[in-house]
Structure formats: C-alpha cells, structure tokens
Design a protein that fits this description.
Length: about 130
C-alpha cells in the first residue's frame, strides 16, 4: 500500500519545508490560494497512529507553514482540518493536515467553518432564532 501512496512518493520539488517527521506541500487541488498539507514521512492512516514525537513534529511544521503563509499571503484566518477515516471522507489513506488560508470576503457567510462538512447541521445559529 505505502509504495502506491502518493504521499509516500512526493516529488522533491513539491516540498516547501520539512523536518525529521514530515513534509509541507501545497495542495494539488487547492480550495484557496496557499492551501497547504502537512504530511508525515512515515505512512500512517490516522493521526491517532502517530507517536507523540511525530505529532509534535507535525505540529511544529503546522506552525512553520502558518508563519510562512502569514508572511507571504497575509490571510485573515485559517481552517485546519484532518479527514480521519472513510466515514470522514478521507480519500488518500495517509494522514495529512489541511492548512487552508482564509481571506476577507472569500465566502459570503463564513460562519460555521468546519461544521459545513455536514451541511444540514452547520447553520446552528438559524435554529436559535426560530
């Protein structure tokens, strides 16, 4: 499985930065300018399979990638997400953390953020006004 995994075979020119446990790349199918992935070097499917040292190293890369995006693109905020398992719509079975820059006006109503993965439950604020 690992030898067919696209994240186990990253082209060196895609890597923005790396450390001992992971790499940072731009998403090949970005939802926003600067959409970035933090990917462990060891093939694992879930964040829950990471050792404490791997999780810490990935978090360090997340912080560094955020700083780089903040400096170069100056987004107004970020969405950070992990699709963990088939039921969570994980399409590449290798752990990866999405770091998605958000910009003022990129959505007509950004409330709810990651809650929109289940659209029928995302708009909780409307229920309060009924």
């Amino acid at each position: 499985m690992a030898n067919l995994c696209p994240f186990c075979n990253l082209a060196i020119d895609r890597i923005v930065m790396h450390n001992d446990v992971g790499s940072v790349v731009r998403d090949a199918f970005p939802v926003a300018i600067g959409h970035t992935l933090i990917i462990p070097k060891r093939h694992m499917t879930s964040l829950f399979d990471a050792t404490a040292a791997e999780a810490a190293g990935l978090f360090t890369l997340l912080q560094q990638a955020k700083a780089e995006l903040q400096q170069t693109l100056r987004p107004a905020g970020f969405n950070i997400g992990i699709n963990d398992g088939a039921a969570a719509v994980q399409t590449v079975p290798h752990l990866h953390v999405h770091l998605i820059p958000r910009y003022q006006g990129d959505s007509p109503d950004p409330r709810g953020g990651v809650r929109w993965v289940l659209p029928e439950k995302a708009d909780y604020w409307s229920e309060r006004t009924k």
